Amino acid sequence: MLARYGLPVLFLVMIAIPAETDSAETPQVVDFFYAAMIVLLLIVLALGSFAFMTVGKLDYLTALSYSMLIIAGVLLILSFAWNPAPGLAGFPYISRATCCR
After folding, report:
1. Alpha-carbon Rg for the chain in angstroms
2. CA neighbor of 62 nearest in space, from 47, 45, 49
């Protein structure tokens, strides 16, 4: 019932909202590196959840939670290594401080 009557109303509201014009000064740029990273993270999430479900014989929600926690932990460790606190080395051969001198 909601889909039958609510979605056409939502479509009419979307038509009534004025569209913003894109200015020539700010072109839309898609960063390939970040897009590829997000796709790879989604693939790791799906395959990790599947691995937890099949090997560990866990239900979907538990396997998904384990996969998300592991991915979050790895990303946290990588973020500290990539951009370390002042006084720590991190990855000096690829950090912004050494490449932009």
Report:
1. 22
2. 49
The encoded tokens of residue 78 equal 């990588």
pLDDT in tens, 15-30: 888 877 656 566 667 7
Per-residue pLDDT of 32-63, as tens digits, reads 888 898 999 999 999 999 999 999 999 999 99
C-alpha to C-alpha distance for 86 and 97, rounded to whole angstroms: 11
**Shortest CA distance to 65 belongs to which of 54, 53, 55, 76?**
53
Record the tokens describing residue 82, joined without a space.
Answer: 């990539």
Structure tokens at 51: 């691995």
State phi, psi for 54 to the nearest 5 degrees. -80, -45
SS3 string of 32-49?
Answer: HHHHHHHHHHHHHHHHHH
